[in-house]
Amino acid sequence: MAENRDLLPRDELTLLTCAEMSKSDGFAIASGVPGRDLMERAGRAVAMAVMQRHGRRPVVLLCGPGNNGGDGFVAARHLRTAGWSVRLALFGSLEALKGDAAWAASTWTGAVEPWSAGLLDGAPLVVDAIFGAGLSRKIDGEIGTAIDLVNERKLTVVAVDVPSGLHGDTGEILGRAVEAETTVTFHRAKPGHYSVEGLRRCGYLRIVDICIPDGALATIDPKTWLNAPPLWTHLLRRGDIADHKYARGHLTILAGSHATGAARLAALAGRRVGAGLVTIGAFPSTLTALQAAEPGNLIVEIDDAAMFERLLGDERRNAVLIGPGSGVTDRTRGAALAALAARRRVVLDADAITVFASDPDLLFGSIDGPTVLTPHEGEFRRLFPDLAGKADKLGRARRAAARSGATILLKGPDTVIAAPDGRAVVNIHASPALATAGSGDVLAGLIGGLMAQELTPFAAASAAAWLHGECARLFGRPGLIAEDLPALLPQALQSLSSFN
Ligand SMILES: NC(=O)C1=CN([C@@H]2O[C@H](COP(=O)(O)OP(=O)(O)OC[C@H]3O[C@@H](n4cnc5c(N)ncnc54)[C@H](O)[C@@H]3O)[C@@H](O)[C@H]2O)[C@@H](O)CC1
Ligand SMILES: Nc1ncnc2c1ncn2[C@@H]1O[C@H](COP(=O)(O)OP(=O)(O)O)[C@@H](O)[C@H]1O
Ligand SMILES: [K+]
Known about the structure:
By secondary structure, the chain is of the alpha/beta class. The chain folds into two domains: 11-222, 3-Layer(aba) Sandwich (Rossmann fold); 229-236 and 243-495, Ribokinase (UDP-N-acetylmuramoyl-L-alanine:D-glutamate ligase, 3-Layer(aba) Sandwich), CATH 3.40.1190. It is built from 18 helices and 16 strands. The strands form two sheets. A ten-stranded mixed beta sheet has the order 7-16-15-14-13-12-11-8-9-10, with helices on both faces. Homotetramer. Residues 228-496 form the YjeF C-terminal domain. It catalyses: (6R)-NADPHX = (6S)-NADPHX; (6R)-NADHX = (6S)-NADHX; (6S)-NADPHX + ADP = AMP + phosphate + NADPH + H(+); (6S)-NADHX + ADP = AMP + phosphate + NADH + H(+).
Protein backbone atom coordinates (compact mmCIF):
# COMPACT_ATOMS: atom_id res chain seq x y z
CA MET A 1 0.00 0.00 0.00
CA ALA A 2 1.03 3.62 -0.51
CA GLU A 3 3.36 4.98 2.13
CA ASN A 4 1.78 8.28 2.96
CA ARG A 5 -1.93 7.72 3.27
CA ASP A 6 -2.61 11.03 4.99
CA LEU A 7 -5.00 13.83 4.33
CA LEU A 8 -4.19 16.20 1.48
CA PRO A 9 -4.61 19.85 2.51
CA ARG A 10 -6.86 21.73 0.10
CA ASP A 11 -6.81 25.51 -0.15
CA GLU A 12 -10.47 25.76 -1.07
CA LEU A 13 -11.54 23.88 2.08
CA THR A 14 -9.35 25.87 4.44
CA LEU A 15 -10.98 27.56 7.41
CA LEU A 16 -9.31 30.68 8.79
CA THR A 17 -9.49 32.08 12.28
CA CYS A 18 -10.12 35.80 12.72
CA ALA A 19 -6.41 36.37 13.36
CA GLU A 20 -5.46 34.36 10.26
CA MET A 21 -7.97 36.33 8.21
CA SER A 22 -6.47 39.56 9.44
CA LYS A 23 -3.02 38.21 8.52
CA SER A 24 -4.34 37.47 5.01
CA ASP A 25 -5.54 41.05 4.73
CA GLY A 26 -2.14 42.21 5.89
CA PHE A 27 -0.50 40.07 3.23
CA ALA A 28 -2.81 41.51 0.57
CA ILE A 29 -2.07 45.05 1.66
CA ALA A 30 1.69 44.38 1.75
CA SER A 31 1.36 42.95 -1.78
CA GLY A 32 -0.05 46.24 -2.99
CA VAL A 33 -3.80 45.69 -2.68
CA PRO A 34 -5.12 48.68 -0.70
CA GLY A 35 -7.28 47.81 2.33
CA ARG A 36 -10.06 50.01 1.03
CA ASP A 37 -10.20 47.93 -2.17
CA LEU A 38 -10.80 44.85 -0.02
CA MET A 39 -13.54 46.69 1.85
CA GLU A 40 -15.06 47.93 -1.39
CA ARG A 41 -15.23 44.36 -2.76
CA ALA A 42 -16.60 43.05 0.52
CA GLY A 43 -19.33 45.69 0.75
CA ARG A 44 -20.25 45.31 -2.91
CA ALA A 45 -20.56 41.54 -2.46
CA VAL A 46 -22.94 42.12 0.43
CA ALA A 47 -25.09 44.40 -1.72
CA MET A 48 -25.05 41.80 -4.52
CA ALA A 49 -26.15 39.08 -2.10
CA VAL A 50 -29.01 41.26 -0.90
CA MET A 51 -30.15 41.97 -4.46
CA GLN A 52 -29.73 38.43 -5.72
CA ARG A 53 -31.48 36.74 -2.84
CA HIS A 54 -34.30 39.21 -2.21
CA GLY A 55 -36.81 41.22 -4.17
CA ARG A 56 -36.52 44.99 -3.98
CA ARG A 57 -37.76 46.31 -0.64
CA PRO A 58 -36.77 48.85 2.00
CA VAL A 59 -33.46 47.95 3.61
CA VAL A 60 -31.91 49.11 6.88
CA LEU A 61 -28.17 48.79 7.46
CA LEU A 62 -27.07 48.50 11.07
CA CYS A 63 -23.40 49.49 11.21
CA GLY A 64 -20.96 48.95 14.08
CA PRO A 65 -17.88 50.98 15.08
CA GLY A 66 -15.25 48.92 13.21
CA ASN A 67 -14.50 47.62 9.72
CA ASN A 68 -17.58 45.40 9.73
CA GLY A 69 -19.52 48.66 9.86
CA GLY A 70 -17.29 49.95 7.05
CA ASP A 71 -18.47 47.07 4.84
CA GLY A 72 -22.01 48.18 5.71
CA PHE A 73 -21.39 51.74 4.45
CA VAL A 74 -20.10 50.38 1.14
CA ALA A 75 -23.08 48.00 0.79
CA ALA A 76 -25.48 50.88 1.52
CA ARG A 77 -23.94 52.95 -1.28
CA HIS A 78 -24.27 50.12 -3.83
CA LEU A 79 -27.85 49.36 -2.82
CA ARG A 80 -28.86 53.00 -3.13
CA THR A 81 -27.11 53.30 -6.52
CA ALA A 82 -29.17 50.29 -7.64
CA GLY A 83 -32.31 52.19 -6.71
CA TRP A 84 -33.14 50.54 -3.39
CA SER A 85 -34.68 52.50 -0.53
CA VAL A 86 -31.89 52.55 2.06
CA ARG A 87 -31.59 53.75 5.65
CA LEU A 88 -28.40 53.44 7.66
CA ALA A 89 -27.89 53.54 11.43
CA LEU A 90 -24.50 53.76 13.11
CA PHE A 91 -23.78 52.53 16.63
CA GLY A 92 -21.20 55.07 17.77
CA SER A 93 -20.13 58.32 16.18
CA LEU A 94 -18.90 59.04 12.68
CA GLU A 95 -15.92 60.91 14.10
CA ALA A 96 -14.75 57.81 15.96
CA LEU A 97 -14.52 55.69 12.79
CA LYS A 98 -10.95 54.93 11.74
CA GLY A 99 -9.00 53.85 8.71
CA ASP A 100 -10.89 52.06 5.95
CA ALA A 101 -14.18 52.32 7.83
CA ALA A 102 -13.82 56.12 8.00
CA TRP A 103 -13.11 56.12 4.26
CA ALA A 104 -16.16 53.93 3.56
CA ALA A 105 -18.37 56.26 5.62
CA SER A 106 -17.06 59.24 3.65
CA THR A 107 -18.31 57.64 0.41
CA TRP A 108 -21.87 57.35 1.77
CA THR A 109 -23.87 60.45 0.94
CA GLY A 110 -27.11 59.47 2.66
CA ALA A 111 -28.13 60.18 6.23
CA VAL A 112 -26.38 58.48 9.12
CA GLU A 113 -29.06 57.94 11.75
CA PRO A 114 -28.75 56.96 15.37
CA TRP A 115 -30.30 53.64 16.32
CA SER A 116 -34.00 53.72 17.14
CA ALA A 117 -36.55 50.92 17.24
CA GLY A 118 -38.63 52.84 14.69
CA LEU A 119 -36.06 51.95 12.01
CA LEU A 120 -37.48 48.43 12.05
CA ASP A 121 -41.09 49.53 11.49
CA GLY A 122 -42.57 48.10 8.31
CA ALA A 123 -40.36 44.97 8.55
CA PRO A 124 -37.46 46.10 6.34
CA LEU A 125 -34.71 43.79 5.22
CA VAL A 126 -31.81 44.24 7.65
CA VAL A 127 -28.11 44.18 6.86
CA ASP A 128 -26.20 43.28 10.01
CA ALA A 129 -22.84 45.07 9.80
CA ILE A 130 -22.46 45.52 13.55
CA PHE A 131 -19.58 43.22 14.50
CA GLY A 132 -17.48 40.73 12.56
CA ALA A 133 -14.04 39.42 13.32
CA GLY A 134 -13.45 42.10 15.94
CA LEU A 135 -16.13 40.96 18.39
CA SER A 136 -14.29 40.83 21.68
CA ARG A 137 -16.85 40.84 24.50
CA LYS A 138 -20.45 40.18 25.35
CA ILE A 139 -22.97 42.27 23.48
CA ASP A 140 -25.24 44.30 25.73
CA GLY A 141 -26.72 47.81 25.99
CA GLU A 142 -28.26 49.50 22.95
CA ILE A 143 -26.77 47.04 20.48
CA GLY A 144 -28.12 44.14 22.51
CA THR A 145 -31.59 45.70 22.44
CA ALA A 146 -31.38 46.17 18.67
CA ILE A 147 -30.32 42.55 18.07
CA ASP A 148 -33.06 41.23 20.35
CA LEU A 149 -35.65 43.27 18.46
CA VAL A 150 -34.45 42.11 15.04
CA ASN A 151 -34.64 38.50 16.22
CA GLU A 152 -37.99 38.88 18.00
CA ARG A 153 -39.55 40.36 14.87
CA LYS A 154 -38.03 37.59 12.77
CA LEU A 155 -36.78 40.14 10.23
CA THR A 156 -34.90 38.88 7.21
CA VAL A 157 -31.22 39.57 7.83
CA VAL A 158 -28.17 39.48 5.61
CA ALA A 159 -25.16 39.34 7.93
CA VAL A 160 -21.75 40.73 7.01
CA ASP A 161 -18.93 38.25 7.72
CA VAL A 162 -20.65 36.64 10.72
CA PRO A 163 -24.00 37.20 12.40
CA SER A 164 -23.07 39.78 15.05
CA GLY A 165 -22.55 38.04 18.38
CA LEU A 166 -21.20 34.80 16.92
CA HIS A 167 -17.49 34.41 17.58
CA GLY A 168 -15.78 33.50 14.33
CA ASP A 169 -13.18 31.24 15.95
CA THR A 170 -14.97 29.45 18.76
CA GLY A 171 -18.55 29.48 17.53
CA GLU A 172 -19.54 30.91 20.90
CA ILE A 173 -22.45 33.32 21.30
CA LEU A 174 -21.25 36.38 23.17
CA GLY A 175 -24.40 37.48 24.95
CA ARG A 176 -26.75 37.16 22.01
CA ALA A 177 -26.44 36.92 18.22
CA VAL A 178 -28.32 37.89 15.12
CA GLU A 179 -30.27 35.15 13.34
CA ALA A 180 -29.46 35.62 9.67
CA GLU A 181 -31.07 34.38 6.47
CA THR A 182 -27.79 34.80 4.58
CA THR A 183 -24.25 35.41 5.75
CA VAL A 184 -21.66 36.81 3.38
CA THR A 185 -18.11 36.14 4.41
CA PHE A 186 -14.84 36.89 2.65
CA HIS A 187 -11.93 34.86 1.27
CA ARG A 188 -12.46 31.75 3.46
CA ALA A 189 -15.05 30.64 6.00
CA LYS A 190 -14.23 30.63 9.71
CA PRO A 191 -14.62 27.70 12.12
CA GLY A 192 -17.44 29.54 13.90
CA HIS A 193 -19.60 29.43 10.77
CA TYR A 194 -19.69 25.64 11.07
CA SER A 195 -20.19 25.36 14.84
CA VAL A 196 -23.65 24.30 16.00
CA GLU A 197 -24.48 27.91 16.93
CA GLY A 198 -23.10 29.10 13.61
CA LEU A 199 -25.10 26.55 11.64
CA ARG A 200 -28.21 27.76 13.48
CA ARG A 201 -27.60 31.45 12.84
CA CYS A 202 -25.72 31.94 9.56
CA GLY A 203 -28.48 30.74 7.24
CA TYR A 204 -27.16 30.37 3.71
CA LEU A 205 -23.39 30.99 3.79
CA ARG A 206 -21.83 32.74 0.81
CA ILE A 207 -18.02 32.86 0.68
CA VAL A 208 -16.85 35.68 -1.54
CA ASP A 209 -13.48 36.16 -3.22
CA ILE A 210 -12.19 39.67 -2.45
CA CYS A 211 -8.96 39.15 -4.39
CA ILE A 212 -6.59 38.35 -1.56
CA PRO A 213 -3.52 37.05 -3.41
CA ASP A 214 -2.95 33.28 -3.56
CA GLY A 215 0.30 33.53 -1.60
CA ALA A 216 -1.57 34.58 1.56
CA LEU A 217 -2.52 31.03 2.58
CA ALA A 218 1.04 29.78 2.28
CA THR A 219 2.27 32.40 4.74
CA ILE A 220 -0.37 31.33 7.26
CA ASP A 221 0.18 27.56 7.04
CA PRO A 222 -3.46 26.84 7.94
CA LYS A 223 -4.34 23.88 10.13
CA THR A 224 -8.12 23.63 9.81
CA TRP A 225 -10.33 22.36 6.98
CA LEU A 226 -13.96 21.74 6.26
CA ASN A 227 -14.42 18.02 5.67
CA ALA A 228 -15.06 17.03 2.06
CA PRO A 229 -13.87 14.24 -0.24
CA PRO A 230 -11.06 16.20 -1.97
CA LEU A 231 -9.13 15.94 1.31
CA TRP A 232 -9.01 12.13 1.28
CA THR A 233 -10.80 10.49 -1.65
CA HIS A 234 -7.48 9.70 -3.35
CA LEU A 235 -6.62 7.47 -0.38
CA LEU A 236 -9.50 5.07 -0.85
CA ARG A 237 -8.39 1.84 -2.47
CA ARG A 238 -9.35 1.10 -6.01
CA GLY A 239 -9.36 -2.56 -6.96
CA ASP A 240 -5.97 -3.87 -7.99
CA ILE A 241 -5.50 -6.99 -10.08
CA ALA A 242 -3.06 -8.37 -7.53
CA ASP A 243 -5.42 -7.82 -4.60
CA HIS A 244 -6.02 -10.47 -2.02
CA LYS A 245 -8.00 -10.09 1.16
CA TYR A 246 -4.99 -9.61 3.42
CA ALA A 247 -3.77 -6.81 1.18
CA ARG A 248 -6.91 -4.94 2.23
CA GLY A 249 -6.26 -5.28 5.94
CA HIS A 250 -7.74 -7.27 8.79
CA LEU A 251 -9.90 -5.50 11.35
CA THR A 252 -10.44 -7.20 14.70
CA ILE A 253 -13.37 -6.04 16.84
CA LEU A 254 -13.88 -6.95 20.50
CA ALA A 255 -17.53 -7.72 21.34
CA GLY A 256 -18.87 -8.04 24.89
CA SER A 257 -21.10 -10.29 26.94
CA HIS A 258 -24.29 -8.69 25.64
CA ALA A 259 -25.27 -5.99 23.11
CA THR A 260 -23.61 -8.00 20.34
CA GLY A 261 -25.47 -5.87 17.79
CA ALA A 262 -22.94 -3.06 18.26
CA ALA A 263 -20.00 -5.22 17.14
CA ARG A 264 -22.07 -6.58 14.24
CA LEU A 265 -22.91 -3.08 13.00
CA ALA A 266 -19.26 -2.07 13.25
CA ALA A 267 -18.18 -5.24 11.42
CA LEU A 268 -20.62 -4.63 8.58
CA ALA A 269 -19.34 -1.07 8.19
CA GLY A 270 -15.71 -2.22 8.32
CA ARG A 271 -16.25 -4.78 5.57
CA ARG A 272 -18.36 -2.52 3.39
CA VAL A 273 -15.73 0.21 3.52
CA GLY A 274 -13.18 -2.23 2.21
CA ALA A 275 -11.33 -4.08 4.97
CA GLY A 276 -10.39 -7.49 3.56
CA LEU A 277 -11.37 -9.41 6.69
CA VAL A 278 -13.21 -8.58 9.87
CA THR A 279 -13.03 -10.77 12.96
CA ILE A 280 -15.29 -10.37 15.96
CA GLY A 281 -13.75 -11.45 19.25
CA ALA A 282 -16.76 -12.94 21.06
CA PHE A 283 -17.46 -13.51 24.71
CA PRO A 284 -18.06 -17.26 25.26
CA SER A 285 -21.77 -16.85 26.01
CA THR A 286 -22.39 -14.98 22.73
CA LEU A 287 -20.33 -17.18 20.44
CA THR A 288 -23.25 -19.13 19.01
CA ALA A 289 -25.38 -16.05 18.47
CA LEU A 290 -22.60 -14.27 16.58
CA GLN A 291 -21.78 -17.36 14.52
CA ALA A 292 -25.43 -17.54 13.47
CA ALA A 293 -25.43 -13.88 12.35
CA GLU A 294 -23.80 -12.38 9.20
CA PRO A 295 -21.91 -15.19 7.49
CA GLY A 296 -19.06 -12.96 6.31
CA ASN A 297 -17.85 -12.12 9.81
CA LEU A 298 -15.10 -14.29 11.28
CA ILE A 299 -15.86 -15.17 14.90
CA VAL A 300 -13.29 -16.19 17.50
CA GLU A 301 -13.72 -16.76 21.21
CA ILE A 302 -12.08 -14.21 23.50
CA ASP A 303 -12.56 -14.85 27.21
CA ASP A 304 -10.14 -12.30 28.53
CA ALA A 305 -7.48 -9.75 27.66
CA ALA A 306 -4.73 -12.38 27.59
CA MET A 307 -6.54 -14.27 24.82
CA PHE A 308 -6.95 -11.02 22.92
CA GLU A 309 -3.24 -10.33 23.27
CA ARG A 310 -2.44 -13.79 21.87
CA LEU A 311 -4.75 -13.11 18.93
CA LEU A 312 -2.61 -10.09 18.09
CA GLY A 313 0.34 -12.45 17.68
CA ASP A 314 -0.93 -12.63 14.09
CA GLU A 315 0.75 -9.60 12.53
CA ARG A 316 -1.84 -9.47 9.77
CA ARG A 317 -4.43 -8.27 12.29
CA ASN A 318 -3.35 -4.73 11.60
CA ALA A 319 -6.34 -2.83 12.95
CA VAL A 320 -8.34 -3.15 16.14
CA LEU A 321 -11.66 -1.67 17.25
CA ILE A 322 -12.63 -1.92 20.89
CA GLY A 323 -15.61 -0.34 22.58
CA PRO A 324 -18.96 -0.87 20.83
CA GLY A 325 -20.81 -3.18 23.22
CA SER A 326 -17.47 -4.40 24.61
CA GLY A 327 -18.48 -3.77 28.24
CA VAL A 328 -16.86 -1.55 30.85
CA THR A 329 -14.73 -4.41 32.14
CA ASP A 330 -11.15 -5.44 32.87
CA ARG A 331 -11.30 -7.49 29.66
CA THR A 332 -12.01 -4.33 27.63
CA ARG A 333 -9.33 -2.30 29.40
CA GLY A 334 -6.75 -5.06 29.08
CA ALA A 335 -7.53 -5.66 25.41
CA ALA A 336 -7.20 -1.93 24.65
CA LEU A 337 -3.84 -1.74 26.43
CA ALA A 338 -2.67 -4.90 24.62
CA ALA A 339 -3.62 -3.45 21.22
CA LEU A 340 -1.84 -0.18 22.00
CA ALA A 341 1.24 -1.99 23.28
CA ALA A 342 1.29 -4.09 20.10
CA ARG A 343 1.29 -0.81 18.09
CA ARG A 344 -1.74 -1.81 16.08
CA ARG A 345 -3.95 0.74 14.38
CA VAL A 346 -6.41 1.23 17.21
CA VAL A 347 -9.89 2.74 17.43
CA LEU A 348 -11.29 3.13 20.93
CA ASP A 349 -14.98 3.95 21.15
CA ALA A 350 -17.77 3.86 23.73
CA ASP A 351 -16.97 1.36 26.54
CA ALA A 352 -13.26 1.42 25.72
CA ILE A 353 -13.30 5.15 26.48
CA THR A 354 -15.48 4.89 29.58
CA VAL A 355 -13.33 2.12 31.04
CA PHE A 356 -10.45 4.61 31.39
CA ALA A 357 -12.56 7.26 33.18
CA SER A 358 -10.89 6.53 36.53
CA ASP A 359 -7.38 6.77 35.06
CA PRO A 360 -7.17 8.69 31.77
CA ASP A 361 -3.41 9.07 32.20
CA LEU A 362 -2.99 5.29 32.02
CA LEU A 363 -4.61 5.43 28.59
CA PHE A 364 -2.71 8.50 27.38
CA GLY A 365 0.59 7.05 28.59
CA SER A 366 -0.08 3.89 26.56
CA ILE A 367 -0.81 5.62 23.26
CA ASP A 368 2.25 5.55 21.08
CA GLY A 369 0.94 4.45 17.69
CA PRO A 370 -1.86 5.31 15.27
CA THR A 371 -4.91 5.71 17.50
CA VAL A 372 -8.36 7.26 17.22
CA LEU A 373 -10.70 8.01 20.13
CA THR A 374 -14.32 8.64 19.14
CA PRO A 375 -16.11 10.20 22.11
CA HIS A 376 -19.48 11.90 22.19
CA GLU A 377 -19.59 14.79 24.67
CA GLY A 378 -20.45 12.50 27.59
CA GLU A 379 -17.52 10.19 26.92
CA PHE A 380 -15.26 13.18 26.27
CA ARG A 381 -16.07 14.49 29.76
CA ARG A 382 -14.92 11.19 31.28
CA LEU A 383 -11.43 11.46 29.80
CA PHE A 384 -11.03 15.24 29.69
CA PRO A 385 -13.16 16.62 32.54
CA ASP A 386 -11.43 20.01 32.48
CA LEU A 387 -12.17 20.46 28.75
CA ALA A 388 -15.80 19.37 28.82
CA GLY A 389 -19.00 21.34 28.55
CA LYS A 390 -17.55 24.54 27.14
CA ALA A 391 -17.76 26.29 23.80
CA ASP A 392 -14.87 26.14 21.34
CA LYS A 393 -15.31 22.51 20.37
CA LEU A 394 -12.43 22.80 17.91
CA GLY A 395 -10.04 24.09 20.58
CA ARG A 396 -11.19 21.47 23.08
CA ALA A 397 -10.70 18.60 20.63
CA ARG A 398 -7.27 19.96 19.67
CA ARG A 399 -6.15 20.12 23.29
CA ALA A 400 -7.49 16.61 23.93
CA ALA A 401 -5.57 15.28 20.92
CA ALA A 402 -2.34 16.95 22.03
CA ARG A 403 -2.75 15.63 25.57
CA SER A 404 -3.68 12.06 24.66
CA GLY A 405 -1.49 11.57 21.59
CA ALA A 406 -4.54 10.19 19.74
CA THR A 407 -6.65 11.62 16.96
CA ILE A 408 -9.89 12.75 18.61
CA LEU A 409 -13.20 12.55 16.79
CA LEU A 410 -15.60 14.57 18.94
CA LYS A 411 -19.11 13.79 17.73
CA GLY A 412 -22.14 15.93 17.03
CA PRO A 413 -23.76 17.91 14.20
CA ASP A 414 -20.39 19.68 13.98
CA THR A 415 -18.07 16.71 14.49
CA VAL A 416 -14.47 17.81 15.00
CA ILE A 417 -11.56 15.56 14.09
CA ALA A 418 -8.31 16.75 15.67
CA ALA A 419 -4.86 15.23 15.20
CA PRO A 420 -2.18 15.43 17.92
CA ASP A 421 -0.02 17.57 15.60
CA GLY A 422 -2.59 20.41 15.68
CA ARG A 423 -4.41 19.80 12.40
CA ALA A 424 -8.21 19.62 12.54
CA VAL A 425 -11.16 18.97 10.28
CA VAL A 426 -14.76 20.04 10.89
CA ASN A 427 -17.45 17.74 9.52
CA ILE A 428 -20.95 19.09 8.94
CA HIS A 429 -21.79 16.51 6.27
CA ALA A 430 -24.28 14.78 8.53
CA SER A 431 -27.96 14.55 9.38
CA PRO A 432 -29.91 14.74 12.65
CA ALA A 433 -31.26 11.31 11.64
CA LEU A 434 -27.88 9.94 12.77
CA ALA A 435 -28.97 10.52 16.36
CA THR A 436 -30.12 6.90 16.62
CA ALA A 437 -28.70 4.04 18.66
CA GLY A 438 -26.01 2.14 16.83
CA SER A 439 -25.04 4.91 14.46
CA GLY A 440 -21.84 5.53 16.43
CA ASP A 441 -20.99 1.83 16.13
CA VAL A 442 -21.21 2.12 12.36
CA LEU A 443 -18.92 5.14 12.44
CA ALA A 444 -16.37 3.29 14.57
CA GLY A 445 -16.47 0.36 12.14
CA LEU A 446 -15.88 2.70 9.22
CA ILE A 447 -12.84 4.22 10.89
CA GLY A 448 -11.50 0.77 11.77
CA GLY A 449 -12.07 -0.48 8.22
CA LEU A 450 -10.20 2.48 6.76
CA MET A 451 -7.36 2.19 9.28
CA ALA A 452 -7.04 -1.48 8.28
CA GLN A 453 -6.41 -0.14 4.77
CA GLU A 454 -3.62 1.94 6.25
CA LEU A 455 -5.14 5.40 6.13
CA THR A 456 -3.69 7.54 8.88
CA PRO A 457 -5.97 8.02 11.89
CA PHE A 458 -6.68 11.62 10.84
CA ALA A 459 -7.55 10.67 7.27
CA ALA A 460 -9.54 7.58 8.27
CA ALA A 461 -11.63 9.48 10.82
CA SER A 462 -12.27 12.32 8.37
CA ALA A 463 -13.29 10.02 5.52
CA ALA A 464 -15.45 7.90 7.84
CA ALA A 465 -17.30 10.92 9.26
CA TRP A 466 -18.14 12.14 5.77
CA LEU A 467 -19.21 8.72 4.47
CA HIS A 468 -21.35 8.19 7.59
CA GLY A 469 -23.14 11.48 6.90
CA GLU A 470 -23.44 10.65 3.21
CA CYS A 471 -25.17 7.34 4.00
CA ALA A 472 -27.70 9.16 6.18
CA ARG A 473 -28.31 11.77 3.48
CA LEU A 474 -28.67 9.12 0.78
CA PHE A 475 -31.36 7.40 2.84
CA GLY A 476 -33.36 10.50 2.02
CA ARG A 477 -36.55 9.80 3.93
CA PRO A 478 -37.68 9.49 7.56
CA GLY A 479 -37.15 6.29 9.48
CA LEU A 480 -33.37 5.85 9.29
CA ILE A 481 -31.98 3.23 11.68
CA ALA A 482 -28.37 2.24 12.16
CA GLU A 483 -28.82 -0.97 10.17
CA ASP A 484 -29.60 1.11 7.07
CA LEU A 485 -26.22 2.82 7.08
CA PRO A 486 -23.86 -0.01 6.04
CA ALA A 487 -26.23 -1.01 3.24
CA LEU A 488 -25.92 2.50 1.77
CA LEU A 489 -22.13 2.53 1.80
CA PRO A 490 -21.69 1.17 -1.72
CA GLN A 491 -23.74 4.10 -3.04
CA ALA A 492 -21.86 6.56 -0.82
CA LEU A 493 -18.53 5.23 -2.08
CA GLN A 494 -19.74 5.39 -5.65
CA SER A 495 -20.79 9.02 -5.19
CA LEU A 496 -17.12 9.84 -4.59
CA SER A 497 -16.31 9.30 -8.25
CA SER A 498 -17.69 12.78 -8.93
CA PHE A 499 -14.88 14.22 -6.77
CA ASN A 500 -12.03 12.52 -8.65
N1 LIG B 1 -9.00 43.91 6.64
C1 LIG B 1 -9.79 42.87 6.67
O1 LIG B 1 -9.51 41.85 7.30
C2 LIG B 1 -11.09 43.01 6.06
C3 LIG B 1 -12.07 43.11 6.95
N2 LIG B 1 -13.30 43.31 6.59
C4 LIG B 1 -14.30 43.53 7.60
O2 LIG B 1 -13.73 43.96 8.80
C5 LIG B 1 -14.26 43.20 9.88
C6 LIG B 1 -13.33 43.21 11.04
O3 LIG B 1 -13.19 44.54 11.40
P1 LIG B 1 -12.68 45.00 12.83
O4 LIG B 1 -11.45 44.27 13.17
O5 LIG B 1 -12.65 46.47 12.81
O6 LIG B 1 -13.78 44.45 13.83
P2 LIG B 1 -15.35 44.68 13.96
O7 LIG B 1 -15.83 45.68 12.98
O8 LIG B 1 -15.97 43.35 13.99
O9 LIG B 1 -15.50 45.27 15.43
C7 LIG B 1 -14.48 45.93 16.11
C8 LIG B 1 -15.03 47.05 16.99
O10 LIG B 1 -16.08 46.59 17.79
C9 LIG B 1 -15.79 46.84 19.18
N3 LIG B 1 -16.43 45.75 19.92
C10 LIG B 1 -16.11 44.43 19.88
N4 LIG B 1 -16.97 43.72 20.62
C11 LIG B 1 -17.87 44.61 21.13
C12 LIG B 1 -19.02 44.48 21.97
N5 LIG B 1 -19.44 43.30 22.42
N6 LIG B 1 -19.70 45.58 22.29
C13 LIG B 1 -19.32 46.78 21.85
N7 LIG B 1 -18.25 46.98 21.04
C14 LIG B 1 -17.52 45.90 20.70
C15 LIG B 1 -14.30 46.89 19.23
O11 LIG B 1 -13.87 47.61 20.36
C16 LIG B 1 -13.96 47.57 17.91
O12 LIG B 1 -14.17 48.96 18.01
C17 LIG B 1 -14.53 41.85 9.29
O13 LIG B 1 -15.46 41.16 10.07
C18 LIG B 1 -15.04 42.24 7.92
O14 LIG B 1 -16.42 42.51 7.97
C19 LIG B 1 -13.67 43.47 5.18
O15 LIG B 1 -13.74 44.83 4.94
C20 LIG B 1 -12.73 42.79 4.25
C21 LIG B 1 -11.31 43.06 4.58
N1 LIG C 1 -28.08 16.11 15.48
C1 LIG C 1 -27.13 15.44 14.83
N2 LIG C 1 -26.73 15.84 13.60
C2 LIG C 1 -25.79 15.16 12.94
N3 LIG C 1 -25.17 14.06 13.40
C3 LIG C 1 -25.51 13.60 14.61
C4 LIG C 1 -26.50 14.26 15.38
N4 LIG C 1 -26.63 13.58 16.53
C5 LIG C 1 -25.77 12.55 16.49
N5 LIG C 1 -25.09 12.54 15.32
C6 LIG C 1 -24.05 11.59 14.92
O1 LIG C 1 -24.52 10.27 15.17
C7 LIG C 1 -23.51 9.47 15.75
C8 LIG C 1 -24.00 8.97 17.11
O2 LIG C 1 -22.99 8.29 17.77
P1 LIG C 1 -23.15 7.82 19.29
O3 LIG C 1 -23.66 8.93 20.13
O4 LIG C 1 -21.90 7.17 19.69
O5 LIG C 1 -24.32 6.75 19.18
P2 LIG C 1 -24.38 5.19 19.54
O6 LIG C 1 -23.42 4.98 20.64
O7 LIG C 1 -25.78 4.95 19.96
O8 LIG C 1 -24.06 4.45 18.32
C9 LIG C 1 -22.26 10.34 15.79
O9 LIG C 1 -21.51 10.14 14.62
C10 LIG C 1 -22.83 11.75 15.80
O10 LIG C 1 -21.93 12.70 15.26
K1 LIG D 1 -22.00 41.15 11.27
